[in-house]
Each structure stands twice: as structure tokens, then as C-alpha cells.
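Bench notes, afternoon.
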Amino acid sequence: MTEQNAAARAKPRRHPARTALAVAAAVILVAAAAFALIYDPPPPPLPPLEVTWTPTEPTQGHLFLIRVAAPPDSGAVSATGEAGGETLHFHAAESALESFAPVPINATDSVDAWVRATYPDGRTQTDSLRIPIVAGTYEHERLTVAPRFGSPPNEEDQARLARDREKAAQVARDALATPRLWSPTMVMPRPYRVTSEFGTGREFNGQISSRHMGLDLQGFMGDTVVAAADGVVALVDGFVYAGNLVYLNHGGGVVSGYFHLSEQLVEAGDTVTAGTPIGRVGATGRVTGPHLRWVVRYGTTSVDPRSLLALVR
């Protein structure tokens, strides 16, 4: 055998099919690695949204509490929503996100609401609710006041009333834009008996009918009035019907008002805590005599002030 033949016989043979398979496998591996780098598997499904409220059947004209479950494994980090026509203002509380919510006094049978929870990855989940309510018990009373307040308002008073309403509405808007300032410590602004209930229908001098949207507390001229909860003084003013007043912004949508004062002891912008003296009982505005009218609102919706105390005690 010649050296040339031996060299030819020793040269390895090529296998085209095997080479093609190897190339294809390499391409597949490269493609798989690239796909793994650019492809994220879909996130796990969100847990069902757990929304509860307290009490289970809120009362017409009262506040109630809405809770969105947010245990560590749920991942919910914030929530928004609406109830009774007002924007909800949630804050973290233990393993839930909580917000007060109002039942308007003219609501019947139920209150419509919705809640949207947001998760760390930006996904959201929304739940629509129909919350059953129970009717409040509201009486009717006839009162005699100064002739000016017992007949329809004149042009000048109508203009002042419009300005009063806008000032009160601005306080409400500010409270909805302010984080919660109140703590669980809340007190009655006067520890005396109720002389006129929230929601009572009223007739003035046999002519004008309205609904009493505050709680009247017994008081004598000059008695001290204190802040019901922590907050900031939002407005110190004199209104046509409410007389000399102080409005407090408690944040989280909650506002309280103290009407018919003889003297105001604070100024707008002051910070107060529950129990801070803010005014003195008087008989200014549309009144039958000295007393304190205490008003609580969530947003622009007036509610029985005692329903606020009941939720934090």
C-alpha cells in the first residue's frame, strides 16, 4: 500500500446528517436562552378581593367602616373607591386597608359602592358593592326663632348663604385631600345631654321646614367647647345660620363643625388634639337660645356625630 493510499484511508469521514443535527441543536439552545432572557412567565392570579364593612347593615345618616383585606400574602398595597357618593380615603390598619364611608340621610334600602385594590406590580382589582342599610328614626319639631330666620332669606342673606356653603365645601375638599390626622382618642365636645337629635325635621315659625343636620348639646353662655378629635383648624368664621363657628379638618375625609359660638379660641391653621378648648357656647345665628351644635361630615355628607365616636371606641 502506498503512503498516499494510507493517508487517504486514515482521513475521517464526514457525516452531513449529524453535522446538521448538531447545528440545529445549537441554534435551538441559543434561541431558548434568548427567549428565556426576554420572556417573563405570567404572574400568579390575584387573590379574590375581600371587602367587608362594619356594621353589616349601616344606619341611614351614619358613618360606617369599609375594610379591604391586605394580609402579607395578598400583596395589596393601596385602595381607592367610592361610597354614598363620596370618595373613600383608605389607610393601613393591621392586616387591612380601612376607610370611613357615609350613608346619606336620604338613602333608601342600600348604598352603592366600589373598591379598587392596587398591587405591587401595578395590577388592580375592582369590586362593586351594594350595601344594605337600615332606616334611622327621626322626629319632627316646631321652633320659634327671630323673624329674620323664620321666613325665606332676603337677597343679601341668599348671597351670604351661597358664600357660606362654598366655604364649607372647600373645607370638605381639603379634608378629602389630607391624610388621616385623627387618632382613636375622641371625645364629646361637651359632656352634656342632647337637646335636639341629628336628622330631626324642623319647622321655623310655622313657615320654613328643614332637617337638622347636627347634634345640639346643652350649654350655657360661655361654657367651654373642646375639639372632638385631633386635627387642624380649617375655618374660623361667622355664618348666617350657624353663627360664629369653628371647622376642624381631621383628614381622611372627616370634618367637624362647632356652631353658634359666643367666642372662638383658635385661629385657622392651629393644630389641636382631642379635648383642646376651641370656643365657648353662645347663641349666634339661627337659634332659640344658647347651645352647641356639633356637626360631623364625611366629605360633604353630614352624619350623626355619635356614629363617628362609635367606630373608634
